[in-house]
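Troubleshooting entry. Yesterday's outputs looked truncated, so today I'm pasting the complete records for two proteins to confirm everything comes through intact. If either block looks cut off, that's the bug. Protein one:
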Amino acid sequence: MQKSTIKRRVRAELTDDQKQEIKEAFELFDTDKDNALDYHELKVAMRALGFDAKKPDVLKIIRDYDKTNQGLIDFDDFAKSSNNQMLTIVAERILDRDPIEEMKKAFKLFDDDQTGKITLRNLRRVAKEIGENMDDEELQAMIDEFDLDQDGEINEQEFIAIMTDANENFDSNSFRKFIA
C-alpha cells in the first residue's frame, strides 16, 4: 500500500472527536500561547494524547516538521496541513491505541487507592473532580446497577463491560459517561 493511500485511509478513520482531542491537546499545552509547541510542550501534549513520548521521538518530530527551524511545531505542522504527515502520525497513534488498555487506564483514574475496585469513595471523588453534584445514594445506585458480582464495588471487568456497552468506540472521555 502506498503512503498516500495509508494517509487517506487514516484521515478517513479519524473521528471528529479524535480531531477535537488533538486540537484541544495542542491548545492546552501551548502554555505560552504563541500558537506553537516547543519540545517540552509537544512532549506533554503527546503524553496527554496517550503516547509514550520518548525524547528521541519528540526531537525527531520537531526536526521533521519544524518549518521555521526554531524548534517549534505550529498547529498546522501538528495536525492540519494537508501536505504534512503529522496528522497521519498522530492519527495512526490514536487509531493504534488498544481500547481495552484505554479502559484499564480509565479504571485506574477511578481506583486511586489501587484496590482493584471502584468504591463509593472513589466514585464520590471522581464525581466531585468533574463537577457532578451527586449524593451518596445516587452514586451507590450507579454502583449497584453495574455491580455484576454484587460485592458492592465495581471491579475492572465490570468497568470494561460498562464502557463497552456505553461506547463501542471508547475514547478518553468515556469514563465521564459512567458518571453522567
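Protein two, checking that the full record survives here as well:
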Amino acid sequence: MSREERKPIVDTSNSSSCSSGEEEVHPVVRRRSTRDTELSLGGPKDPGCCDPSSTPHRFLALLFMCLLGFGSYFCYDNPGALQDVFQKELDLNSTEFTLIYSIYSWPNIVLCFVGGFLIDRVFGIRLGTIIYMLIVLVGQLIFATGGVLGSFWLMIVGRFVFGIGAESLAVAQNSYAVLWFKGKELNMVFGLQLSVARFGSTVNFWIMQPLYGYVSKTYAGYTGLGVALFLASSTCVMSLLCTLILGNIQHTNKCHSIAIVSLLPGWMDKRAERILKRNNNPTGEIAKLSDVVTFKLDFWMVSVVCVAYYVAIFPFVALGQSFFVNNFQMTPDEANTVNSIVYLISAIASPVFGFVIDKVGRNVTWVFCATISTLLAHLLLTFTHWDPYIAMSIMGLSYSMLAASLWPLVSLIIPEYQLGTAYGFCQSVQNLGLAVVTVVAGMIVDSSGGSHFWLQLFFIFFLLISLLATCCIWAYNRKHQGNLNMSPGQRSTYHTSMYVNIESS
C-alpha cells in the first residue's frame, strides 16, 4: 500500500480555529473501507483479479478447486491399473480384488451424507476440505504400507480410510463450485472439475504399469507393488497442498501483499465472502439431517440416476483389464490403454459439454441422451466384436455429458443452505450402490469362469433403471412446471417471477 493509501481521510468541515476557553473540536476521521483499499490495486474502473466478482479471480480459484481432487482420483484406480499384479502377487480372485473397490464405498453410505452435513453445519467448507484431504492421504499411505508388507487386510483398512475422506472431499468440491459459480458457468465448472479428476485416473492407467515395471527391478514381488503405491501417494500430497491453499490461508489487509496472496484461493474465498458480503443463507435457516425427508421426488430420482448410471461405469472400469484381455485378446498394457479411454475422453469433453449446457440448458434432456448412448456402448461391447475403442469412446462422451448435466440439477432443486447435505446424500446412495454392485460384479465373473457376458447384462439392466428414473424427472418437472429442463433465459425469467411472488406474498 502506498503512503497516501495508508492515510486516513480527514473531514475538517466541522473544524475551526478554537479560541481559548472553547472546547476543541476534533476532526472526523473516516477510514477507507477494506473493499476500497483491496480493490484499489486494479484501479477504480478495472479492479481486475483483485475483485472476487471478476472472471479471472473466480477462475483462478477454480484452478485449485480442480487440482484438489486430482490425487484422490489418481489413487482410486491404482488397483484397476495393476489388476494383474494385485491378483498375482497377493493371490486374489476376482471377488477378493473387487473388495478393494467396494470397501472404499461402504463407509460412505453413511459418512458421505454426514460429511456434507458437517460442511453445512460444523466445519464450514474451508476447514472441512482440509480435514477430508488429510484423511485421503493417510488412507493411501496405509494402503501402500499394506502392499510393502504383503498384508491384504492392512490394504483393506487403508482403502476404508481413503474412502472416508475421498467421497466427502467430492462433496466439498461440489459445494465450492456452487458457492463461486452458481448462476454463471456452473455446468462448465462441474465439467472442468470432472475433467481434471478423470485426467488423474487416465494418468494412473498410463503410468502405473511402467512405474511398477521400473520399481520391480529393485523390489521384487508385493514389496515392489507397495513401493509403487507409495510413489502414487505423492499425487495426494500435491492435492493436499492445493487444499491448504484453498482453505487455510488467512486474510491480510496489506495491499502490497495482494499481488502475492491473491494467488492463494483460500484467502480468495475468505476475502470474497467478506468483500462481496456473500450470504449463502439469507433466510437464516439452519441445515438439519432431518431435512432430507423434505426433499421432493425429483431429487430422489436424481439420486437413483446417480446410483444406476455410475454402477455401470466404475465397476466396469475396475474389472476392465480382465474384460479386454479375455474378450479381445489384449495384453495388460493394451487393456489399460483402451480401459482409460473413458476417463481420457471425459477429461477433454466434460468442460466442453459443460460450456454447451451452460448456453442451451435443458439438463434433463442431456441426461436422457447420455444414458441412451452409454446403453449403446455396453450393447456394442457385449454383442459385437467391433473395435472396443469405438464403444469406449462413446462411453467416454456419454459419461462426460451426464456428469456435466446431472450434478447441477441438485443446485436447481435444493436451497443453498442444504446443498452440502443434499450432495452428501447423493454421494452416500451412490456409494451404497457401488459397494454392493462391485462385489456382486466380482462374484458374477468368478461364478461364470471368467466370462463377462452376464456381467455386461447386469450393467445394461442398471442403465435401463437410470433411463426410467430420468423419464420420471422429466415428467415430474413438467407436471410441476419446474426449471430443470429450461433454457438459461427461461430460468432467469422463472427465478424473477418466483422472487416477485415471494415479495408480494
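Both blocks look complete. Sanity check on protein two: The chain has 25 helices and two strands.
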